[in-house]
Amino acid sequence: MTALKIFYDGGCPLCLSEMKHLITLDRQKTIDFVDINQEGFQSKYPDINRQRADQILHGQLADGRILLGLDVTHEAWSLVGKGKWTAITRWTIIRPIADFAYLIFARHRHFLSRLITGKERCESCSLEREKC
Fold it and tell me: Contact at 8 Å (CB) between 10 and 60?
């Protein structure tokens, strides 16, 4: 059973890299990865605003609750046994600073991708487990 659905930007090289890393660690297949750029996204997921999901990472728990930003990141990494890597971002004193920094990162992720990977955007692609 899927514990978390992550709605990610498949056209962002940095986002795509993180999702691929999560897939390799998700041996129990507890995470479902959904590219917000896929054709028909809004009709398949009417409760997720695509424009808002492009501004801040969205996730949906099995019970329907929506998580945003670093809450999604921490939940995903926790599900694959690596939550200790992201736990500090959820500490009470660090959380507001980390959330603010994340929003700046999310807003400028394409520029940062170009600096880090040399590509600002990439072709949106599928993260089917068999192909990774």
Answer: no
Asked if 59 and 76 touch (Cβ cutoff 8 Å), the reply is yes
What number of other Cβ atoms are within 10 A of residue 31's Cβ? 20
Q: Profile the chain (132 residues) by mean pLDDT over runs of 10 residues.
A: 92 90 95 94 94 96 97 98 95 97 92 77 54 37
Tell me the β-bridge partners of 7.
34, 58
State the residue for tokens 């599900």.
79
With a CB cutoff of 8 Å and minimum separation 6, the contacts of 93 are none
Does residue 89 sit in helix, strand or coil? helix
Tokens of 116: 């880090």
| Distance (Å, whole) CA 57 – CA 34 | 11
Q: What 3-state DSSP class applies to 108?
A: coil
Given a contact cutoff of 8 angstroms between Cβ atoms, the answer to whether 45 and 71 are in contact is: no
Output the pLDDT for position 129.
40
Q: Is 106 within 8 Å of 11 (Cβ atoms)?
A: no
